[in-house]
């Protein structure tokens, strides 16, 4: 159970009961039946167990031994703690329960404080003047629509259960999965950190530009923009260090200062509204000096005449006057004209400028273009302005809507407070912003609105000069509120980073999960300060604002995506209390976020998107696996269901056929797969693509060996992981191995994703183990054929290459009969893997007496050409059809062995000894020179790779121990064995049916060994099993396969599923 599920005092009695039961019996209750106890022990254990069970629940005593009582479960849920636990002093007294906050204090006011920011005071008037009342209104409305739609989606997610601390990170990660959650969490963290940098730079700008311009350490910044930004960098760094120390030393001070900052924001906004109506007819405080239509700076209002020597000295240096100065008059213009003046109509339309153009009335090129490259004292645009750029600059003013959801653990009714408080806060702030656009446009002259730093009025803040009673209310209030917002960001960002680190989804963030002795995220704070310093070095609010807008927009976009995904999937767990949402609203919000990102700054959007993709792929590749019941998993299930239903409509087209592999792995006595390289072969065949299902069958009763099945599945999964097999594994427990395999083959898979190809290992010890070994193998072959599935039987599997090796040589395909083109497709698929990529294909086919081998070769080359497969072609002629004496002798020995076994009728132990004797005698008489004699390679699994050559040499000489044991075993034959021996020796004429098949096996083997003895892999058709279910026929079938593959190191026998799997058509 997760750490957040804490057991409280109410649960202690139940916990103690379980420990009492454990101590009384000496074993866990679930393990009582696994041990051999006397009746007294069992009786005492049952009494101790039942003594703590309600009499009405004796029927469920077995369940209660391993599962919690329902009251315990409900208690753990009721005591769920949704905050990140801080470090506590073990000697300290338990803290008093915190007061639960309502909607106003817990959600509404924190959102108000976080939404209203520095942009409102130092940039909104400039945005209105540059964009005009109409476009300015659309800019603000667009940003507010983004946050409103996001708030609706967030309210639905936040009311769909308990939202832990962490805000958008936790909501998105639990809705879209750890990959999306981690990526968006880091984006949100970066955005919050850069917001702190923007607040710090904004606070420095307020002080240096409007309160203490004499503090500049780089000269007069009104004449040199670089000097101004350098001042911002230096003072911003000093202020960051000071604020970082405050956050490190006293978080309580930050929380208390938040109340002061909130009061400053509210009072400042009230002062602005009162000032607007107080100055409804304008005031005489601010006058601007205008040359023609151009706005001038640093001109004392008393010297604002054309005949004044002050003006003449500026525009007529060396007695040569500027043409624009000579052709235009100088005038004084009132800056604050008031709502009654009708100035609103002058501010309706936009006045976008390019960098270096003059700020002037109208759009005449003669007024705005700097033809002589002399600015004199005329104010110029410092950046190129567009509608989309202004959206990016203004958007940080509407962020901060997550403040309420971050405090869900402190709310009395989070399900009610979060939607109401957040949406009301957005409505309030949107009303303020939208009304401010109209009021500013109707009160202030157009030129003064576009004067970003108030240079035309002596470096004064425009908003401050509108407010009542004087400008210092706004200057002090805006500075303190901006400082408070920066402190809040520096406090919240490290905790968000710590929350991400504690989720352990991004491994390299693990060091930042630790807290100091006071429970503070000190390491995360240091990283936050470093990143914030990088933002401060940009030194310009107009650069920081669009950049952090990208991070917030991506975060909000994913919140909308999470809500849309959950709604469209209709998952059973998606039951929000907030009902006023719809998936279409979420998609509109997502579209707006993406559109604003691209329109505002495509390169900043690319930076944020690249960062998200890198983090996503990193978490997917290296991050810890988490199961959070997220929407992406649900979407995957829905997509899988849709695809499966589509595939179920009919069999796949030949062009779409691909091997969906079912690997039947045999386990040894230690529950380890006998043939490890069968998994490597499956990986190589799929070339890392597609799914593979690996299944093993255990013999026994599932109710008795369920634990063994779980262990076996874990081992099987480990082998698949080690060999990089992408797929699933399972264990089936059955009374008989053969019946279990048959059940697996018939029922495995879903719809169109049912496996169509089976890989099964060769039973190397079928002679020694007797009938059961090869009977299971043949029964599986028959079942696969009945299910119309393809079958692959790798022989010599331990000599197959590892997946991390590269080999060269030939892959030889012996195409004896056509089985749908599977023999053509398999080597092509193998060559897609790096292991076999350097191998060449050689295709051999056998010509009969009446065939034209030359024409066969030509036709085969044409066929391969149309298949787009490159391979060498050779047609082998087998003209000699005479049955040799060796064939008769080999067949006779095979039949004599079968007769002897049938006559003996021995038990299993005696059977294995006599079979060994017959095998030894048989191979003493019929041994021929061969490269490899197959033995059971299971024992080779525990040896190191360096002994590979020794393994091959031992397998070649695998008959040696049989020869040494043969005399001893033969000499120990009893009288029944001698009688059986004399009986079958009297019948020396072999069955013609067997002779013919033996002849085919021997002749083909001779040709294949001659041509392909040095091949890296030999692929051939697997002959069909006998139709008659008779022991002799089945045993003979196994012997034929042994003869067919004798002398070959690596063989893959293939049997098609009865359908075409490859086509020449596009």
TrEMBL record:
<feature type="transmembrane region" description="Helical">
    <location>
        <begin position="379"/>
        <end position="398"/>
    </location>
</feature>
<feature type="domain" description="SLC12A transporter C-terminal">
    <location>
        <begin position="977"/>
        <end position="1066"/>
    </location>
</feature>
<dbReference type="InterPro" id="IPR004841">
    <property type="entry name" value="AA-permease/SLC12A_dom"/>
</dbReference>
<feature type="domain" description="SLC12A transporter C-terminal">
    <location>
        <begin position="680"/>
        <end position="793"/>
    </location>
</feature>
<dbReference type="GO" id="GO:0055075">
    <property type="term" value="P:potassium ion homeostasis"/>
</dbReference>
<feature type="transmembrane region" description="Helical">
    <location>
        <begin position="418"/>
        <end position="442"/>
    </location>
</feature>
<keyword id="KW-0406">Ion transport</keyword>
<feature type="transmembrane region" description="Helical">
    <location>
        <begin position="232"/>
        <end position="251"/>
    </location>
</feature>
<protein>
    <submittedName>
        <fullName>Solute carrier family 12 member 6</fullName>
    </submittedName>
</protein>
<feature type="compositionally biased region" description="Basic and acidic residues">
    <location>
        <begin position="971"/>
        <end position="985"/>
    </location>
</feature>
<keyword id="KW-1003">Cell membrane</keyword>
<keyword id="KW-0325">Glycoprotein</keyword>
<comment type="similarity">
    <text>Belongs to the SLC12A transporter family. K/Cl co-transporter subfamily.</text>
</comment>
<feature type="transmembrane region" description="Helical">
    <location>
        <begin position="128"/>
        <end position="149"/>
    </location>
</feature>
<dbReference type="GO" id="GO:0045202">
    <property type="term" value="C:synapse"/>
</dbReference>
<keyword id="KW-0868">Chloride</keyword>
<dbReference type="GO" id="GO:0005886">
    <property type="term" value="C:plasma membrane"/>
</dbReference>
<dbReference type="GO" id="GO:0006884">
    <property type="term" value="P:cell volume homeostasis"/>
</dbReference>
<feature type="transmembrane region" description="Helical">
    <location>
        <begin position="103"/>
        <end position="122"/>
    </location>
</feature>
<keyword id="KW-1133">Transmembrane helix</keyword>
<dbReference type="GO" id="GO:0055064">
    <property type="term" value="P:chloride ion homeostasis"/>
</dbReference>
<feature type="domain" description="SLC12A transporter C-terminal">
    <location>
        <begin position="808"/>
        <end position="888"/>
    </location>
</feature>
<dbReference type="Pfam" id="PF03522">
    <property type="entry name" value="SLC12"/>
</dbReference>
<dbReference type="GO" id="GO:0007268">
    <property type="term" value="P:chemical synaptic transmission"/>
</dbReference>
<keyword id="KW-0769">Symport</keyword>
<feature type="domain" description="Amino acid permease/ SLC12A">
    <location>
        <begin position="384"/>
        <end position="662"/>
    </location>
</feature>
<dbReference type="InterPro" id="IPR018491">
    <property type="entry name" value="SLC12_C"/>
</dbReference>
<dbReference type="InterPro" id="IPR004842">
    <property type="entry name" value="SLC12A_fam"/>
</dbReference>
<keyword id="KW-0472">Membrane</keyword>
<keyword id="KW-0630">Potassium</keyword>
<feature type="transmembrane region" description="Helical">
    <location>
        <begin position="580"/>
        <end position="597"/>
    </location>
</feature>
<dbReference type="InterPro" id="IPR000076">
    <property type="entry name" value="KCL_cotranspt"/>
</dbReference>
<feature type="transmembrane region" description="Helical">
    <location>
        <begin position="257"/>
        <end position="277"/>
    </location>
</feature>
<keyword id="KW-0813">Transport</keyword>
<dbReference type="Pfam" id="PF00324">
    <property type="entry name" value="AA_permease"/>
</dbReference>
<keyword id="KW-0597">Phosphoprotein</keyword>
<keyword id="KW-0633">Potassium transport</keyword>
<dbReference type="GO" id="GO:0015379">
    <property type="term" value="F:potassium:chloride symporter activity"/>
</dbReference>
<dbReference type="GO" id="GO:1990573">
    <property type="term" value="P:potassium ion import across plasma membrane"/>
</dbReference>
<feature type="transmembrane region" description="Helical">
    <location>
        <begin position="188"/>
        <end position="211"/>
    </location>
</feature>
<feature type="transmembrane region" description="Helical">
    <location>
        <begin position="547"/>
        <end position="568"/>
    </location>
</feature>
<feature type="compositionally biased region" description="Basic and acidic residues">
    <location>
        <begin position="942"/>
        <end position="956"/>
    </location>
</feature>
